[in-house]
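[job 0417] fold request received: Aspartate-semialdehyde dehydrogenase
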Amino acid sequence: MAVRVGVLGATGAVGQRLIQLLDPHPEFEIAALTASASSAGKQYRQAAKWRVDSPIPEDVAEMTVTATDPDEVPDDVDLLFSSLPSSIGAEVEPAFCEAGYVMSSNSSNARMAEDVPLIIPEVNADHLELLEVQRDERGWDGAMVKNPNCSTITFVPTLAALEEFGLERVHVSTLQAVSGAGYDGVTSMEIIDNAIPYIGSEEEKLETESRKLLGEFDGAELSHDSVEVAASCNRISTLDGHLENVWVEAQEELTPEDAADAMEAYPSLDLRSSPDQLIHVFEEPDRPQPRLDRTLGGGMAISAGGFRESTFGLQYNCLAHNTMRGAAGASVLNGELLLENGYL
Ligand SMILES: NC(=O)C1=CN([C@@H]2O[C@H](COP(=O)(O)OP(=O)(O)OC[C@H]3O[C@@H](n4cnc5c(N)ncnc54)[C@H](OP(=O)(O)O)[C@@H]3O)[C@@H](O)[C@H]2O)C=CC1
Ligand SMILES: N[C@@H](CC(=O)OP(=O)(O)O)C(=O)O
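[job 0417] inference complete; emitting structure tokens
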């Protein structure tokens, strides 16, 4: 029987992607949709300005949106996907977990909290056991799992593939699509014929979340990895797909061929939304490119290419679809991991 799920922030850009992925999902059944007070009580088709590139699912369109309040969500909903603005998430997500709901959240609040697992299933599924610590400390029947920032998700799997070489220092520079800023995030007058070398708090997120993801969980505490990470983030005028330039200094000798082989061999999982091949390695020097490569693996694969030796160690480029692998798809994958591990 399918698990009954709810979407918090269901009318937003990420909420709509979540509905697009969850509606046909064989393991999940959409049973609750929440948004702000101005949407509560409306039919979903009236509350949401549907902008996703497939028709609005008819059964979802007929559902009534409720306020984002634990008392408004039916008790037989077992899993919540949250795509709320982080300031709202910080207020309401703990109340849902306290009320017994298990939550897979995309919002950035609490990602760095010591007892909150920040998960990319193919990289650190073992960190999920941190939920036992979380439940002990907070007295929750529910649980909270986070997925990282979309730019973090793009480069961390490639670093995980190189960990055996002893990562010391990483520099990453991003070229981020406009969809990452949301529908109203940057105006056409700002971004056409332009690039913006600033995305608020993004650099700090890449630098800290990456070390948490690559850290070790010993059954009681999570220690962050010692690799030093420096990031520089830029908005460009692509629609979807974050492209990143990465430089890696390692303890061991790390040639371009070693790196390409390690990434190609890095395993995926057999969760329903995991791609068959997690990291696609391109030999062509001008790939990956956002328009050509963002939909690989149904938008859930990472791609990499342009491997070369540089003054600052190994250099390469990587890419992922920011609203699929980087947001809604990442939350769904974490929901599948929670299901597989008996949390639902
Ligand atoms: N856009 C993207 O590609 C990415 C976004 N994210 C993150 O995901 C989250 C959502 O982003 P996005 O979908 O773009 O945001 P949107 O602004 O498009 O959607 C926000 C959602 O939250 C609801 N909401 C707003 N205020 C409240 C409130 N006071 N109480 C309850 N619900 C409220 C909105 O409801 P209503 O329609 O009623 O206002 C809407 O459903 C953010 O934390 C963002 O940083 C992460 C990665 C990528
Ligand atoms: N800041 C990201 C999207 C985002 O909302 O990130 P976060 O999930 O960390 O809030 C971008 O602009 O591409």
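[job 0417] notes: The mean pLDDT is 97. The first helix runs from residue 13 to 22.
[job 0417] exit 0
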